[in-house]
Amino acid sequence: MIRILVYVALVFAIAAGFSWLADRPGDIVLSWQGYDYKTSLMVASVSLAVLFAVLAILLWIVVTVFRAPRLFGGWLSGRKRDRGYRALSRGMIAIGAGDVKRAKRFATESRKILKDEPLTLLLAAQAAQLTGDGAGARAAFETMLDDPETRLFGLRGLYVEAQRSGEHAAARHYAEEAVKAAPSLAWAGNALFEDQAAKGEWSAALSTLGSNLHAKLIERGAAHRLRAVLLTARGMQIESSDQEEARAAAQEAVKLAPGLVPAATLAARLFARQGDVKRAARVIETSWKFEPHPELAEAYANVRPGDAAQERLKRAEKLASLRPGHVESRLAVARAAIDARDWALARRELAAIPDTARTERFCLLMAEIEEGPDGHRGHVREWLTRAVRAPRDPQWTADGYVFPAWAPVSPISGRLDAFEWRTPTVALAADQRPAIDLDVEEEMPETLVIEASPLAAPAPKAEPAATATPASSTPTATRANAPVAAKNGGPGGAEPAVVAPIPDDPGVEDKGAEPADRLRLQ
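and the corresponding structure tokens:
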């Protein structure tokens, strides 16, 4: 737009100049070698303008002639480059469509034409991956390492290939190289952190987590939670060797995540070992306010080893007062009351639990109560039976599996902070599965009813041996074998032998004694 305005202004300026000359006529006289050349001012001006135009055209022609070879070469290279990019584009489309042959052909063609184009290496690597050629893909990615612009791309591809082939050490090496080259690279920072956590390198994982937080690769809240888990794992690792450092790590973990139960129990245990029972109790009380947990209740009741059962009961009641009415509070008091043999208090606490929260642990505690004062074995068996069918209690679960204790890393997937305190998912029982109602009355054929009169029972034949022999397996065997003998070629008209039972003996119902040809609707 600006260029057009400049051209228009230039035209107006030239027109104004010629108009000014036309309004002021004059002559120009040139004396040269005894001759006088005279012309008007307007003609001289037009002649000069034409002369300049001709000179400009001649100059352009000369420059074009000298630049023609280079221009022609540029035109040819442009066509070649366009053909290379067209092959590159078609190769990318073939990769997306899963056309292996076309992808490899276009990758080779584009690589020949566009030798210095990084995208050709990407196309070659993806074509190799599509065909399952891991060596070819790695070769393409390794070539990318030589160019600073594609180095990170190559490291990413080599990391993926190493992970795919199970070479975890090589994958970690590539992730470390990528982190050194670009600390803000999300995939590299997360991959290095996950590998360090999965291998139990807690100190290195803490350092990497701090770097990821500084690079804003993770939110601050999530980073605090993961740091608390790592500190808890570190404290559990050095609990027996360096209690001071373990206690400091557990304290920081509790500050970062007060609801992390393993951190609270670890800190309380270490404080109790040092004789600081008050601080140990305070740590558990703080965590209990966030979310009551049976492990917290057990640690709080036994915070001072050797206390009497009544002391543990008082301590459990104090802990329950922090979250009154909670199911875990009532279960904690009931457990302590049973240990103190205060059956009435234990029964009252359990009776206050709603029916929807009466789990397996509730039934087992009730069984202990029934066994305690009077020893009602029938009631004990009843509660144990209920415990089998009662809903399950929450447990430590990770990746769908139940574990007896918490761990910082899942042994299934190696993921950090994978453990959750939740009710395990179980399949529905056969009588609890939702029924599918099918209306098949119209499709069912009408039941055919056949009326048949029963045959008269054959007259029994008394045998002398039967009166002297007591009821045993012999008559039964005789009755059972009689029809078989008739079927297998015995006397066709013979009736099956039936032995009369001993008086006052109800006998044994023998279905084999019935005639084989009796009509019966099955």
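(Above: one complete record from the training split.) Residues 328 and 390 are 17 Å apart (CA to CA).
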